[in-house]
Amino acid sequence: MYFEEAVKRINKIDWELFGKTVYDKENLEILMLGTKYLKNMALFYHEIREQYRYPFNPLLISAAEFLGYKEKVDIKDCCEPIVEDIMKNHYIPKHMIECHLQMAKLVDMEPKYERYLNIYDPMICFIELGFDFSYKDGGLTVYKIGLYSLVDWYNTFLNA
């Protein structure tokens, strides 16, 4: 159920818009998406930190895998061909989509993890709005918006 809805959401994105959106300075909610994602990851790490000594890079991990789910999700197996075609040179957005889908699959199997279902939602919102992003210059770089530094990200965003 959650997985099917997540796939529908990804397939409904206007992929012709991806990477072409220009930030409207009057829309502060867009700026908060990066902060919201990093806060989500800080809260997630806060819950599981006893198992891991150091905070992970919040752009490179799969929360579902940290919860024990090992089945990989590849967009080419579940999304429209245009998604795979556009994402082939965009590692971090592709990874975020696959992590989002992987978490949806986990929640379908184990509903006790439903509270983590929206961890990746802010990043999917960036994509839906047409923004591209990457891991660059020591942080989350959202093109045409700016940089969210990952220096001490856990402490910075835990209480943001």
Provide tags for this entry:
160 residues; mainly alpha; 3-stranded antiparallel β-sheet; 8 helices; 3 strands; globular
Description of the structure:
The chain has eight helices and three strands. With about 160 residues, the chain is mainly alpha-helical. It has one domain (about 1-160). A three-stranded antiparallel β-sheet has the order 1-2-3. α6 crosses α7. The termini are far apart. The mean pLDDT is about 95.
What's this model, at a glance?
The chain is mostly helical and 160 residues long.
What's the SSE blueprint?
Elements (H helix, E strand, L loop, with lengths): L1 H10 L16 H21 L14 H4 L8 H4 L2 H7 L3 H19 L11 H8 L4 E4 L2 E4 L3 E4 L3 H6 L2
Antiparallel strand pairs: 1-2, 2-3
Distance from first to last alpha carbon: 32 Å
- Please give the domain count: 1
Largest sheet: 3 strands, antiparallel
Low-confidence stretches: none
Q: Total helix count? A: 8
Helix content: 40-55%
Rounded to an integer in angstroms, the radius of gyration calculated over CA atoms is 15 Å
Average residue pLDDT:
93
